[in-house]
Backbone:
């Protein structure tokens, strides 16, 4: 099965719009704290809860992509996302805001239904490229979410940010319904058995376990930086407003640009080689980010390199795990992305604690240690293999069905 460019572009835009819902609150940390009269720690809790909700959705909802018709599943999930965003926009209290944020996190896993959907309908030899394109949309959604949030909050107030998110989510839901094909489910089993099969796949696929480690450590590091960046930039020596903080996120565009490159490398069987380079880049970026406490040029350069490394590892990981079991891509994505975002939630929580106690030095030290640990694991992998072997094209793999 193959798909045309218009469909891939629609999926990329939709994925970016949906994932943006997770990040609108990040550049508004100081504003939300003042609005609701809560502390920095309380704001950090809600940011963490959004990611926890996302992780719960990954574990419980994404596997349904193998069991149910995916287009209909996406429609239901996006409707829930619209309701959650409307709740955040209209919240009368911080508790209500937090509860609506959890619903948004839970339903935003629709993005993780779209990505394996794209891999499924891509033609042979194009999976890496198609997934890279869709992931470029996702990454741009993450970046632009912070910029849009800052600009809209400055012009129309913070509530308008989440109202706009609700409208955009509704629009992309309609676009997906119109443009996506219907796909028959690939699994026939009861829901409890479906969830249990995720654990079985993890036990039986060592390559998946290894990629989970790389992804988790990198995204935890990514979250360590962004969870506290808003605090750093809102205070001396920067003293930036919401719009300036949001615009700063555009420096991470290198991550979106590298997604397509990583996808093409994967189609050529070079994902394992590329992983090591991306890990080293991410670990090294914190030398610049550490200096960024007082140097905006170093901070900006560090963000670009960090995003490049993190997203390069992520695309390489996806290109290697989706061909493992084509009939179970949603469940493979569940296993990988659940740990990925749990790690992100842990990184967010640790970052807010470290920033409160040790400032930007503590944040930078933790951020560097995580990809450095992943690099050490990659070196062990190379040592055991002799050299990272090229990944076989998906069409050449004779993987038995184990649903």
Residues:
């Amino acid at each position: 099965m193959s798909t045309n460019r218009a469909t891939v572009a629609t999926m990329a835009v939709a994925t970016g719009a949906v994932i943006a819902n997770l990040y609108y609150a990040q550049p508004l940390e100081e504003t939300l704290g003042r609005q609701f009269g809560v502390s920095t720690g309380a704001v950090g809790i809600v940011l963490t809860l959004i990611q926890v909700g996302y992780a719960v959705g990954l574990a419980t909802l994404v596997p349904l992509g193998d069991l149910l018709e995916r287009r209909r599943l996406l429609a239901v999930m996006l409707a829930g996302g619209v309701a959650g965003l409307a709740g955040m926009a209209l919240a009368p209290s911080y508790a209500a805001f937090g509860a609506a944020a959890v619903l948004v996190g839970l339903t935003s896993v629709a993005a993780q239904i779209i990505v394996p959907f794209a891999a499924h309908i891509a033609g042979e030899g194009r999976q890496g490229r198609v997934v890279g394109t869709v992931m470029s949309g996702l990454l741009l959604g993450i970046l632009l979410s912070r910029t849009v949030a800052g600009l809209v909050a400055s012009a129309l107030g913070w509530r308008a940010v989440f109202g706009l998110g609700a409208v955009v989510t509704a629009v992309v839901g309609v676009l997906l319904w119109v443009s996506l094909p219907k796909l028959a489910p690939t699994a026939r089993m009861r829901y409890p058995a479906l969830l249990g099969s995720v654990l079985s796949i993890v036990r039986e696929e060592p390559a998946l376990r290894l990629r989970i480690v790389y992804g988790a450590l990198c995204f935890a590091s990514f979250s360590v930086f962004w969870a506290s960046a808003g605090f750093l930039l809102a205070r001396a020596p920067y003293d930036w407003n919401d719009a300036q903080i949001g615009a700063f996120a555009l420096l991470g565009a290198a991550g979106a640009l590298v997604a397509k490159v990583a996808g093409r490398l994967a189609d050529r069987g070079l994902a394992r080689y590329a992983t090591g380079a991306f890990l080293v880049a991410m670990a090294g970026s914190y030398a610049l980010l550490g200096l960024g406490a007082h140097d905006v040029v170093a901070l900006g350069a560090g963000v670009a390199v960090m995003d490049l490394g993190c997203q390069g590892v992520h695309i390489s990981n996806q290109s290697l795990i989706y061909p493992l079991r084509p009939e179970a891509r949603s469940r493979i994505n569940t296993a990988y992305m659940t740990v990925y975002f749990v790690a992100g939630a842990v990184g967010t929580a640790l970052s807010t604690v470290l920033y409160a106690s040790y400032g930007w030095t503590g944040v930078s030290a933790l951020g560097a240690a995580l990809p450095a640990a992943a690099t050490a694991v990659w070196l062990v992998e190379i040592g055991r293999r002799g050299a990272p072997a090229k990944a076989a094209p998906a069409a050449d793999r004779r993987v038995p069905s184990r649903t």
